[in-house]
Design brief:
The protein is α/β, with parallel strands linked by helices and about 300 residues long. It is about 30% helix and about 20% strand. The protein has one domain (about 5-270): Vaccinia Virus protein VP39 (Rossmann fold, 3-Layer(aba) Sandwich).
C-alpha cells in the first residue's frame, strides 16, 4: 500500500514519534518468501503499518488464502488505509500488539517500531501483563523492538516460521542475552542477514539493521550468516536461503557474549585482494568519543 503517497501526506515528526520506518519492497518480498515455505494457514504482522508484508505475500502468491492478522496502533495510518479496500482474509486490529492476548500463529513477519522503552508512554501498564503472559522479567529491555520479538517467538506454533527486522546492536546489549539464549536453546535461529550499507537499503533507518529468520523446529544446526552490501544485490536475489556465505555452530555464539564482533570477524577473514592488507596488521581501530566539538573540523 503506497508508502510514497503516505509520506507525502504525513509529517515526518509524526513518523518519528511513532518510530515508523518502512520496509523496502525487495526486503519484504524476501522475508515473505521465508515464512511462506511451509504453506502457513495463519500469519501475524504485529506492526502492520502500510501493509508491505501483506502485499508481498500476495505478490508471491495472488491466490494465497492464509488468514492474515495485523496489529496497528497508529490511527493516522488506519485512516489512510480506509482508502484501500480490505481483503476477506485480512483482519486489521486497531490495538497495541503488546496489549493483546497471546495467540498461536503458523508464521510471523514484522518490522517492529524502533523506540526506546523510556519513550513508551504506557509501558508501566503493559509490562506487567506481558511479563505475566510470558513468565519473563522484561525490566532492563531498552527497545520496544526486542519486546515485540520476545512476544512473537512465544506465539510461534511448532514448525512455524518467523522473519523479523531488528537493530543489529541488540546482539551486544544486556537485555539481548536472554533473547539470544532463547533463540539458541530452542533451536529457533536459522539465519542472520546483515546489511553492510543499510543507509542505501533502509534510508529512513536510525540504527543498524539485520533480519532474523527463525523456525520453531527445535533443531540445533549451524546458523547461516549472510551479508548484503547493496540494493542491487537485494534486487537480484530470489531467496534469502540462497545467501549461504558463512555457517557458524550455535556453540560458537555464546549467548552471554557480544555477537557483533564474532559475526563481523567471519567477513574480515575473507580473501584480501592482491596489493592490500587488513587494517588489523597496523593496529586496533575504535570509534572515538563523540565530543560534538564541530569547530575543530572542516564540515561541508
Amino acid at each position: 500500500m503506497h508508502e510514497l503517497e503516505y509520506a507525502l501526506t504525513t509529517p515526518i515528526s509524526h513518523r518519528k514519534d511513532c518510530a515508523q520506518f518502512f520496509t523496502p519492497p525487495s526486503v519484504a518480498y524476501l522475508m515473505a518468501k521465508w515464512i511462506l515455505k511451509d504453506d502457513p494457514k495463519s500469519i501475524l504482522d504485529p506492526a502492520f503499518g502500510l501493509g508491505i508484508f501483506y502485499d508481498a505475500i500476495h505478490q508471491i502468491n495472488p491466490n494465497n488464502n492464509s488468514q492474515f492478522t495485523g496489529y496497528e496502533l497508529d490511527q493516522h495510518i488506519l485512516t489512510y488505509l480506509n482508502f484501500h479496500p480490505n481483503k476477506n482474509n485480512l483482519q486489521l486490529i486497531n490495538k497495541d500488539y503488546l496489549e493483546a492476548d497471546l495467540t498461536a500463529y503458523d508464521a510471523i513477519i514484522c518490522n517492529p517500531p524502533y523506540m526506546r522503552f523510556q519513550k513508551f508512554l504506557t509501558r508501566h501498564d503493559v509490562l506487567p501483563k506481558i511479563e505475566k503472559q510470558l513468565g519473563k522479567n522484561l525490566v532492563g529491555y531498552s527497545n520496544i523492538a526486542s519486546v515485540f520479538l520476545v512476544k512473537s517467538l512465544n506465539e510461534l506454533k511448532p514448525n512455524g516460521r518467523l522473519a523479523f527486522i531488528m537493530p543489529f546492536e541488540f546482539f551486544n546489549t544486556g537485555y539481548g542475552k536472554e533473547i539470544k539464549k532463547s533463540l539458541l536453546d530452542n533451536g529457533l535461529l536459522k539465519q542472520i542477514v546483515i546489511f553492510s550499507n543499510e543507509k542505501e537499503i533502509f534510508p529512513d533507518a536510525t540504527t543498524t539493521v539485520c533480519v532474523l529468520l527463525c523456525k520453531n523446529d527445535r533443531k540445533t544446526e549451524s546458523i547461516k550468516i549472510a551479508e548484503i552490501s547493496s540494493k542491487e544485490e537485494i534486487d537480484r536475489l530470489s531467496d534469502f536461503s540462497n545467501l549461504d556465505r558463512f555457517k557458524i555452530a550455535p556453540s560458537d555464539l555464546p549467548y552471554n557474549q557480544k555477537w557483533t564482533p564474532i559475526i563481523l570477524s567471519l567477513f574480515s577473514k575473507r580473501q584480501v585482494p592482491s596489493g592490500l592488507v587488513n587494517f588489523s596488521l597496523y593496529g586496533t581501530f575504535k570509534r572515538g568519543i563523540a565530543t560534538g566539538a564541530n569547530e575543530f573540523f572542516a564540515l561541508s
